[in-house]
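During the reporting period the student researcher (J.K.) took over the structure-prediction task from the postdoctoral fellow and processed the backlog of single-chain submissions. One of the processed entries is reproduced below for the supervisory committee.
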Amino acid sequence: MFSLPNNWGTGGAKKRTRRRLSPQRVEEIWSRFDPAGDIAVRRFAGPQAYVGQLDRPLRVAHVTDLHVGLVTPMPIQVKAAELVNAEEPDLIVITGDFVCHTQSWLDELRDTIALYKGPVFCVLGNHDYWSGAQDVRRALVRGGAELLDNANTVVAIGSQRIQVLGLDDAYTGHADRRKATKGLRSDLPIVGLSHIAEEADALWHARVPLVLSGHTHGGQVTVARLNELAIGKLSGHKYIHGLYGTRNGAPRSGAVYVGAGIGAAVMPLRWGDRGRREVTIFELGVDPEGDNGIEEHHQTQRPLRGRRPSSKLKAKRAEKVVKRAARRARMTDPLG
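J.K. obtained the following structure tokens:
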């Protein structure tokens, strides 16, 4: 059982002095909206492609969108780590949005990452760029994670090896698929990480059979299919929550999983089964067809229509990163 460090909540990067609520007060406020701090553990078999590549199944734990900060009480972060560690995964992956609008909780982010027991690999999300990617990177590394910025690496797990590919955040324009896939080996299994799920379509063509992602929070409120309206029709995403694509091992095809996340950026309210906070366990090397002993939450789904962001929208998103960086610079400049 984990407990919060004694200094948890004392602050991260020292910026302009401001009064902060204690973690206990934050928990008291937000527990009114999310009284149970409920986190689902969902299990799936990996795609067929891994069956012939692995001598024994590998267990991958996926969490996303931690949003360490004011909106997500720290006990929820601890509980998520406990649930992951209880599964004794071979690999832990976290797919972006580690912070929430500010750098004030970077020490807590470091401590949160350190709770996870096992090799941890990460990619960044849009909130990390809005809040200062370099500082978020440093906190992740100090916590013991390896960050993959448009890169891939080979991980040894016992006598087996697996490639982990990390695509940088596409929402803010930092994804570089060519760089991320450079040097991938055809004789080793690959699992891909991308904050934005729609990037999976191109990664499948690069022989990445499974991409794990986040960003949408599953919509958080999923009753009456409100999540499909908000995240799909209004925001243009075709992958909202859960498993999409195919796991049949066909060439240049694959699956993508969109995690519902642990934290929140604005309001912690979560309502409906698909909106629950979530830890996802993938058993790579287990045949997804037939009786594999895994009680899966759902089968692969048909994507929504979706739409690509326009050039104007892409430029606006990139400009937001620049404006946020300029604002941070002014706040830390004693003459600004």
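The committee noted the following: The mean pLDDT is 88.
J.K. will present the remaining backlog at the next meeting.
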